[in-house]
Design brief:
The protein is of the alpha+beta class and about 70 residues long. The protein has a single domain (about 5-70), classed as Nuclear Transport Factor 2, Chain: A. Helices cover about 25% and strands about 55% of the residues. The chain is built from one helix and four strands; from the N terminus they run αββββ. It has one helix at about 5-20, and strands spanning about 25-30, 35-45, 50-60, 65-70. The radius of gyration is 12 Å and the shape is elongated.
Length: about 70
């Protein structure tokens, strides 16, 4: 498994544990300034209405999550 795939796997597992979505869609994984940046979307239920939430997870080279950003699409 490549470092990029491992960063994606860690980010998806984090989102599934934190938000419990049915699906997590990763749109990009890039390396910048010594960090892996994983971006994508996941569905959420907001007071009975389906919404899409975008996310950005930043991980260091050891796989530790350094920051997260979630916002409604």
């Amino acid at each position: 498994m490549s470092c990029m795939e491992e960063a994606q796997r860690i980010a998806v597992a984090f989102i599934k544990k934190r938000k419990n979505p049915q699906i997590v869609e990763v749109s990009s994984v890039e390396e910048r300034d010594g960090l892996w940046i994983v971006r994508g979307t996941c569905p959420i239920d907001l007071e009975g209405h389906p919404w899409r939430e975008i996310f950005e997870i930043r991980l260091d080279k050891k796989g530790k999550i350094k920051s997260t950003d979630f916002s409604l699409l």
